[in-house]
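Folding problem:
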Amino acid sequence: MGKTKIFIRHPQTLFQTEDAFQLKKHDIAAIIQASWKAIMQRRKYLKMKEAAIVLQKNIRRFLAIRLAKRRRRAANTIRK
């Protein structure tokens, strides 16, 4: 048994191996599908997280500018 090839001395071994593979084929496919779906969901989540961070950054910037204007107006009112 190597990494890419397998030596089979008796044909019964081949048939048993093929039968075992046929029984597990659906489980293997389900594992691959679950892994792929997890990867895609992770990518979607990271995009949404990045978009939320950009939105939060812009909102904080807007609020900071508005607060600075209010303080500037208040300081000007006091000076008058």
